[in-house]
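Page 47, continued from p. 46.
Same chain as before, 535 aa.
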Amino acid sequence: MSDSSQYPSGLFPEQMREDPPQSTSPGDDPSWISGPVLEMSKNWGPIEAMLGGTDYLRRNCTFFLPKNPKEDEDAYRRRVAHAVVSPFTVRLAEQAVGLVLRKPIQLNDDGEGADVDPFWEEFCKDVDGQGTDLDEFARKLAFSALLYGHAGTMVDYPATEPAPNLQVERELGLRPYFIEVSAKQILGWRRTEDNPLAPLGQVRIDEWVQVPLGEFGDQTVRQIRILENDRYRVYRRDGDGTQTSNWYVCEEGPNSIGQIPLSITYSAKVGELISKPPLLPIANLNILHTVRQCDLNHALTVAALPVLVLQGFDDTDNEIGLSANSAILLPPEGSASYVEPVGQGSFDAQAAFIKELEGQMSNLGISTIFSQLNQPETAESKKLSRTDSDSLLAILSKNLEASLQEAFNLAAKYNNIEPPVVSVDRDFDLQTLDGAQVGQYLQLWQNGAICHETLLAALVKGEILPGLDVELELEMVQTEKLDNMAMAMPIGNPEPPSNNEEDENAEPAAEQSSLRAEMEARIRQMAGDNDEDES
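Result:
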């Protein structure tokens, strides 16, 4: 820890993120970082600080919490040890991703009569070969894209001899798998032509892998993966792997699908593989809040405790014991008292400023999820307050759906099968139907304005019957209706049927009326239970 005379303003200092060392011959260096990536990286510092949390703050304390004038090293270390980062930015991103993926991702057929291949059902249980299901992988992907602006999904396939047919391929367990690629890993790219409409022809990805060392050990090795339309290459450094070592190709092979197997999820797209973190303003305020919170904590530690003052007491090196069983001997003219701050205005001002920062963070971006759930609002005010939130969530949801669809398309090319249609639910509203709204839906159903299926679908969407399978419920209701009709039939010889149409329709009408009354009673009871839980 070194001295620093410049106190930070609260915004993240650009000097903190130093550009990595670049090679003097960028044309031959696969690890060369392109200009757009270096420009984007200037906005990643605050995000990395918030992801690193308290540990990151303490490791970089000279930037966030520099020494005060004449502050000794022990006192400075104690002050740094008490510093804590409030996770506003990270929690906000987690809740936003939770809203986008609060319902499972659906895989549907293509709408042309072809069913979804059973292979995809098993694939979704482990999309990365490490036991991660599709929903969890999508959650991590969306979280990274929301914080950094974009994230990628690389679709890879085991580097083995190709199987003669699909059956042998599945018997051997050969299948594609997803790999999450953060924005920080993409070092550069180039197009096939000098044309903005031309597709990407090369993408360089920075990777760190574990390789065996001896009989039992392992070591972390950096490698650069080069993805191209017709081939791939993996570069590593020779010798001791230092910056002065040369790069060599440790692995290469053909690209069997004819395109770069990488799909990108954007939350704030600027250009091809270029974005800006949408939560950057909140991260900067979060850093300012952390610094001010540390200042207030230190001020309270120093000034909030009373100080013992002794008049007429001879100063010695002996310690003074203060307790109910000890006393201090003073001369007749001596006295003892405690001195403490008289005014608390400075503390109150600092605390008020911290509260103001929390309010600013709560009102930025998609922060309506903090206030909307805990206070009553009209339907129109809820709609207006969710405008910004839904716009960002909708952008993330649409891009996530499109990128996952592209990833499944790439995986399907490896296996030569039809890809499914990926669907991410865009119902971000957590508000459930209340008793009055349920009654209105029931009235529409009773009047014949909507059918039974529409009623159940509305109740499922309104969280009254969450997780209900509407088709199965309709089938069970119809089965129960037929069973009731069968039980109502007389055991002996039935009476001859009547030719009167009114007699023929009387029993079905009575049965339908009884069914409606029973269904209405069940739904009203469930709506009443929900109202009691909310109250």
